[in-house]
Structures are given as C-alpha cells and as structure tokens.
Design goal:
This protein is of the alpha+beta class. The chain has helices at residues 22-32, 73-78, 96-105, 158-167, 179-188, 238-253, 272-280; strands spanning 14-19, 36-44, 50-57, 64-69, 87-92, 115-117, 120-126, 132-137, 141-143, 146-152, 195-200, 206-214, 221-229, 260-266, 284-294, 297-305. The strands form three sheets. The chain has an eight-stranded mixed β-sheet, with helices on both faces. Strands 1-4-3-2 form a four-stranded mixed β-sheet.
Length: 307
C-alpha cells in the first residue's frame, strides 16, 4: 500500500556531519567552500553537557549541514568515514571551472581530475574530515564537435574580452577601454545585477563573451548588453551556447525575477547576420528606433519571453 505525504510542504532541513572540531570544520566550509554560517548557538547533550548547534549551508540553499563534533570514541572513529569511503555528498555549482579553481586555491584537496558524465562535469574532493564529495557542474556543450565551457567571467578574462570586441569590430582599440569599468563593476558588485559570461574551448582559450543585466525602470525585463564571438570561431555554435546559458540562468530565476530578455542591434547590412541569428533562436523583432546610432542606422530591438 502507498500512502500520501504527511504535508504539502516538505524538505530536508539539515543532515548531520560528524566532525572532529567545530571551529576547524567551520573554517573549511565557510572559508574554503564559501558556505554561510547559518547558526552557531549553545546547546546541551541529552545528559546535560554543553555542546554547540552549528549549521552551515551553501548560499540560498534550504538544506544545511549540521556540524556535529564527535562525542566519544565511536563517533571519533566515524569522523570522515560516514560513507565508508564512498562519495556521500554532492555539491552542485553553476560555474564548475571557477569553483574548482577557487577551491584548489583555498587548499581543498581533489582526488580526481574533472570528467564528463551524462549528468554534468564532475570531480571528487575531500572535506575537512576526509569525506568524499562530488563537485558537479553543467555538462560541457559541444559546438560542431568541440567542447565548449560557458562560465562566469573573472578579472583575468578582461583583456581577452577586449581583444574579441576589437576583433569583431564592435569597438576600436581606442574605444574599448570602457569595458574595464563594465567587467570590473559586475565583478565587484558596483554594477548591481550585471553578469558576464565567457566561452572557452578545449584548450581553455576564451573565444566569446556576453553581458546581461536587469533593464532599469522595467518590470523584470533583462537586457543583453554585449555578446561577441572571436571571428575564428564564429559559425560553430558558440554564440548559441552562450545564449542558451543566459536564458537558462534567467528562466531558473523564475517569473519573480525575470520575465523577458531584450537584445538591441543595428539595422545596417553589416549586422544582417546578427539579426538573422536572433530571429533563428526565437527572438521577435519588437521595435525599430530610427537613426538611433546615426543617419540610416536604426536600433533594432529583439524580444523573447523567459517564462
């Protein structure tokens, strides 16, 4: 016999992880993994002795890890062996390579190289106690047979983004300096809501970039302010892969944060392929603002629902 659920709203609030020392474990999960310290309060054991109630969790997550300091020899032996040597915990991130790089720089030990599985990119790492975790990220997209990784941009990508902007004739070498403020502002938070993505091919060369942000004074509308692919890699599906990543991130936010995405381009013959590209991936031409960019150079606005 199958029974119904006890409640319409259910979730696992915490799962316990036995640790040798509260503070060492907090240091690992907060400083090395970037978790939040959700609670650290005084508590007592069943027989009245003092202990702490310590919960850490990834940002915006519902389920937390209750860090339980080992009490007694049996629990001390269990620390690091809760899963009998198997991978027992799984951390999903939206930018695998940046997360793996940051974790490695913060001293996290990886026991395997990244590999591709049907469910995404994966590498095994150890926590402070020696438990094995899977770090999971999106599966690499293939563009005409080439593995392409779409990830969040870093400050180290800035020069390459500017090179691509010049190579595609979007801006001249003299004009492109403004991208310093656009990229750095997104990274340091001074440009609220702005996000930059880059596309890497198998040799870790950045070959594309995209920027998007909420449209000011609009109702949950976002604007794709920049997208460019290195001319040597155009026509290989990289632009579509970046657009897929932008749209997936926005649809994942839900209707509360993102309803529509608009893209603006020029009406000139030079941008005819660009307009065909947006139309081909489901964007509708919504408006033309005459001579916005100059005589006979109109702004063309494309629109797509994210709901």
């Amino acid at each position: 016999m199958r029974y119904g659920t006890y409640s319409l709203a259910m979730h696992i609030e915490n799962t316990a992880l036995i640790v040798k020392d509260y503070d060492d474990a907090i240091g690992f999960f907060v400083d090395a993994l970037g978790f939040e310290l959700a609670e650290d309060s005084a508590a007592t054991t069943d027989d009245g002795r003092s202990k702490r109630w310590v919960v850490v969790r990834p940002p915006d997550a519902q389920t937390g890890l209750l860090l339980a300091e080992a009490d007694g020899e049996q629990q001390r032996r269990a620390a690091g062996q809760q899963y009998a040597g198997r991978v027992g915990l799984f951390l999903r991130v939206d930018d695998f390579e940046n997360a793996r790089r940051a974790m490695h720089e913060r001293g996290v030990v990886f026991t395997s190289e990244p590999r591709q599985e049907e469910y995404g990119e994966v590498a095994v790492f150890l926590d402070s106690e020696g438990n094995r975790w899977d770090l999971l990220g999106p599966r690499r997209k293939k563009s005409h047979g080439t593995d392409t990784t779409i990830r969040i941009a870093t400050a180290g990508d800035l020069d390459r983004i500017k090179e691509i902007a010049v190579a595609t004739h979007m801006f001249t070498a003299e004009e492109v300096g403004f991208l310093d403020d656009m990229v750095n502002g997104a990274l340091d938070g001074s440009l609220e809501g702005h996000r930059w993505l880059v596309a890497e091919v198998d040799d870790d060369t950045v070959v594309g970039a995209a920027q998007y942000a909420p449209e000011p004074f609009a109702d949950r509308m976002w604007n794709l302010y920049f997208i460019a692919v290195d001319p040597n890699h155009q026509g290989t599906g990289i632009g579509s892969a970046m657009m897929d990543s932008v749209e997936s991130e926005l649809t994942g936010r839900g209707v509360e944060d993102a309803r529509t995405l608009v893209v603006e381009t020029s009406s000139t013959d030079r941008y005819a392929r660009t307009r065909e590209f947006y139309a081909g991936i489901g964007y509708a031409e919504e408006a033309r603002i005459r001579e916005f960019y100059g005589p006979d150079d109109h702004k063309v606005v494309f629109w797509k629902s994210m709901v």
